[in-house]
Amino acid sequence: MSVVVIIDDHPENARLAARLLKAKHEVHTAFSGEDGLALVFDLKPDLVLVDLGLPDVDGQTIIAMVRQNPLLNQTRIVAFTAYPEEVAAEIARVYKCDGVIHKPINTRNFPSQVAGFLPFVAPPVAQE
Fold this sequence. Notes:
Layout: E1 2-7, H1 11-21, E2 25-30, H2 33-43, E3 47-50, H3 59-68, E4 76-81, H4 85-94, E5 99-102, H5 110-115
Helix pairs in contact: 2-3
């Protein structure tokens, strides 16, 4: 099961995203950049969904700090934002994000969007 950290200062956004993902992923949420960074450094997740417009530590700083930590080289980072598409795409490119998911999310395809950023893990083979 993949570990996903969602960092969003709007609790309703983070909770909705977590609810949509929890059936297939271990999901942790943080409502501030500082708390999110602590979770990321502690859990070393497979994926971080980070809001770019956080009030305390902005998303770009979080992305840069994660990218600088060699223990997090395998962690995928996706900008999770309501920024205009062009702005979000440029930030994602400059900060080396693995992609962008725009808010508001489409609840029907959000889980598959997220899954597209995670490496495929084959399900365990049943023992006979």
